C-alpha cells in the first residue's frame, strides 16, 4: 500500500532499462490509468484466473494507487549502447548517474522500483544504485533476472513471489481414470513464510499444504525435491481418506 512505502509529498522512481522501454512503459501506465485498471470491479471480471484463490481483491482495488503525481519514470541507461566496443564500466556508471537518479528529482523520491533488470549493463547499474541509496531509500526490484546475483543484493529479501507448477508422472499414464495431475502454487507473501498450495481436482480448490521458513529457505524458497515430497504426502493422505 502506498502509505507503507511513501511519506507525504514523497515520490517513487520507476526505472527501466533504456529510453525505448521507458516510452513503452509510460504508454502502458497511462493506458491503465485511463481504463481504471486494477479496480475491484475489473479484477472480478478476470474470474477463473489461475491465481484468483490467492489474491485479495482488496489489494487489487488498490493496485492503481500510484497517480501520475506519485511517480517518475526514468531509464537507467538513457540511450546508452551496451553493445558498443567503446562501452566500459565507467560509461555505464556515468549513464546511470545522468539518467536514473538526477539529484534534483531524487531528493523527493523515497523508493526506487527497478523493473526486470537482466543485462550485464543493468547489473552494473543496479550495483551502483544499491551502493548509493540502500541506506536512504527503499529499493524494490521487480522480476529480477540478474545472473549472477550481485553481491550488493545478497542481503535482500523476497517480498512477493508466485510459482505455478504441475506435477506429472515420470512414466506414461496407463489408467484413463487416474486422477488429473495436481496444480501446485508456491507463494511468498511478506511477512509470511513460503507457502505451498495444491489443487487435486476434488472440488475443494487450492488447499494450503505446507510452509517453509523464510530464514531457512532464503530468497528462492524450497527446492523441487521439498515441494515434491510435500505434494506426495498431501496426495497420499487425501486419497487414503477417500477410500
Textual characterization of the structure:
With 243 residues, the chain is an alpha/beta fold. Helix content is 34%, strand content 20%. It is built from nine helices and eight strands. The chain has helices at 2-5, 19-34, 40-44, 57-61, 89-99, 103-106, 120-133, 214-217, 224-242, and strands at 11-16, 71-75, 109-115, 138-142, 160-166, 183-189, 194-199, 207-212. It has a four-stranded parallel β-sheet with strand order 2-1-3-4. A four-stranded antiparallel β-sheet has the order 5-6-7-8. A hairpin with a 7-residue loop joins β7 and β8. It is elongated. The termini are far apart. Mean pLDDT is 77; it is low at 1-5 and 36-65.
Stretches where pLDDT is under 50 for at least 5 consecutive residues are 1-5, 36-65
The total beta strand count reads 8
Radius of gyration: 22 Å
Instruction: Count every helix, treating DSSP H or I runs of 4 or more residues as helices.
Output: 9
Q: What string, H for helix and E for strand, traces the elements in order? A: HEHHHEHHEHEEEEEHH
Question: How is the biggest beta sheet arranged?
Answer: 4 strands, parallel
Strand order of the largest sheet: 2-1-3-4
Q: What does the oligomeric state look like here? A: single chain
User: How far is it from the N-terminal to the C-terminal residue, by CA?
Assistant: 46 Å
Q: How confident is the prediction overall: mean pLDDT?
A: 77
Strand percentage, roughly?
Answer: 15-25%
Shape: elongated
Share in helix:
25-40%
Supply the helix-strand structural class: alpha/beta
